[in-house]
Amino acid sequence: MELNQPIFATKTVEADANGAIIAEKVWTDPSVGEYDIVFDANRNGVYNKGIDAVDDPNDPGFIVLCSVPALTPIGLIVLVGLLSVVVVISIRRKR
């Protein structure tokens, strides 16, 4: 297995009283692509087969398809306006 250039996200894993992992954002601006999740057991910053754990060596751990831009207040107003126009046109056509 050959890994692409690693993207490191070092985080302390938090868990609740039942041991369930609490979700936390670790990558604020992801790039489109397929990625594996690797646990660097010996903490040397290098993937060592047989020492470090990979989520699944045959399939990606997760896939980033695309980033969705944030909707600004002006964008939201424009969207509502356009939807209103579509509704009005649909109602007038039904008459």
Explain this structure.
There is one protein chain. The chain has 95 residues and is an alpha+beta fold. Helix content is 23%, strand content 11%. The chain has one domain (1-68). It has a two-stranded antiparallel ribbon. Strands 2-3 form a two-stranded antiparallel sheet. The termini are far apart.
Distinctive features:
single chain; 95 residues; alpha+beta; two-stranded antiparallel sheet; 1 helix
Task: Write a brief caption for the model.
This protein has 95 residues and is an alpha+beta fold.
The main sheet orders its strands as 1-4
Mean pLDDT: 78
Largest sheet properties:
2 strands, antiparallel
Q: Structural class from helices and strands?
A: alpha+beta
Shape: elongated
What's the number of domains? 1
Rg over CA atoms, rounded to whole Å, is 22 Å
Number of strands: 4
End-to-end CA span: 64 Å
Percentage of residues in helical conformation:
10-25%
In N-to-C order, the SSE pattern is: EEEEH
Number of discrete helical segments? 1
Report low-confidence residues grouped into runs of 5 or more: none
Tell me the fraction of residues in β-strands, as a range: 5-15%
Give the SSE map.
Layout: E1 33-35, E2 38-39, E3 53-54, E4 62-64, H1 73-94
